[in-house]
Design brief:
The complex is a heterodimer of chains A (about 150) and B (about 140). Chain A contains 5 helices and 5 strands, in the order βαβαβαβαβα. Chain A is of the alpha/beta class and about 150 residues long. The longest helix of chain A has 17 residues. The chains are: A alpha/beta (about 150), B alpha/beta (about 140).
């Protein structure tokens, strides 16, 4: 990624979360991975001012307590959080959810490939894109960090 | 796949527009490119076509309607707001980056001067948005299943 901030992963399935972690490691992505197992936990992380804001959010949709769409709706209505790119990573092929996602301005909607090699390739493309793209400042205290950019990728 | 989906390029600089078109051709991508030179033209165009572009590549500094004004207009439109808009600009102003993401841009790429690097940027944008699903309302014919 363009900066060294954490990647926030919202995923209730432990095995799926492990797969993301492994793919990032295989791709030598250095950003720390923070995992929340549902939308509520994700919001707790984002609203705790002691935590650095993530560079991107990877978001599963089907989760208990607060699902991915409910989470998206909350962060996109929050002036401080809405700028963070949120990318849906799901197995769902539901048309309604997809439209809803784009209405809520998702920064990508990716159907998780079942095959691990293909999954790594998808994560590689996400990583590459968000390394090339500028990132919004979401932490008031570290406004200049992004100019040091590329070394973190 | 979204390969045949048109890309709408909003760019007032004809050299930059040529570079994007050339990069897409050199990459052997089959996307149709629609090139318009300012936001006002693009708003008019989008209001009339039936097949919406699968992504919009948007310059910021343009006459009549700037990129940021265009973003604001599109994201306030219930039908058009689902189209992913990626800013492609020479501006490295933090204010522009912040405002773009604030208004709903899903990527902000600064144009590299070097042609090879420019091609890489275009390639990455297209590969990424081909990997991603498109909003259903944009897909007209080729459903995945």
């Amino acid at each position: 990624m363009r900066n060294s901030k954490p990647i926030l992963l919202l995923e209730d399935d432990t095995v799926d979360a492990m797969t993301v972690k492994r793919a990032l490691k295989d791709l030598q992505v250095l950003n720390p991975l923070v995992r929340a197992s549902n939308g509520e936990e994700g919001l707790e992380y984002l609203r705790d001012t002691n935590n650095p804001k993530p560079c991107v959010i990877l978001l599963d949709l089907n989760m208990p307590k607060m699902n991915g769409m409910e989470f998206l709706k909350v962060i996109k209505a929050d002036e401080r959080l809405k700028k963070i790119p949120a990318i849906v990573l799901t197995t769902s092929r539901d048309d309604q959810e997809r439209i809803r996602g784009f209405q809520l301005n998702v920064a990508g909607y990716i159907i998780k490939p079942v095959d691990y090699t293909k999954f790594v390739e998808a994560v590689r493309i996400v990583h590459l894109y968000w390394t090339l793209s500028e990132m919004p400042d979401t932490d008031e205290e570290c406004k200049n960090e992004k100019f040091q950019a590329n070394s973190a990728s | 796949m979204n390969e045949l989906k048109p890309i709408l390029l909003i760019e007032d600089d004809s050299v930059d527009a040529m570079t994007v078109k050339r990069a897409i051709r050199d990459l052997h991508l089959t996307n149709q490119i629609i090139h318009l030179t300012n936001g006002e033209e693009a708003v008019k165009y989008l209001a009339h076509i039936s097949e919406k572009p699968f992504v919009i590549l948007l310059d910021l500094n343009m006459p009549r309607m700037t990129g940021l004004e265009f973003l604001k207009t599109i994201k306030a439109n219930e039908i058009l707001k689902t189209i992913p808009i990626i800013v492609l600009t020479t501006s490295k102003e933090r204010q522009d980056v912040m405002e773009s993401f604030d208004l709903g841009a899903v990527g902000y790429m600064t144009k590299p001067v070097d042609y090879t690097k420019f091609t890489e940027v275009i390639n990455t944008i297209i590969i990424y948005w081909n990997l991603s699903e498109a909003p259903k309302s944009v897909i007209t014919a080729n459903d995945k299943i």
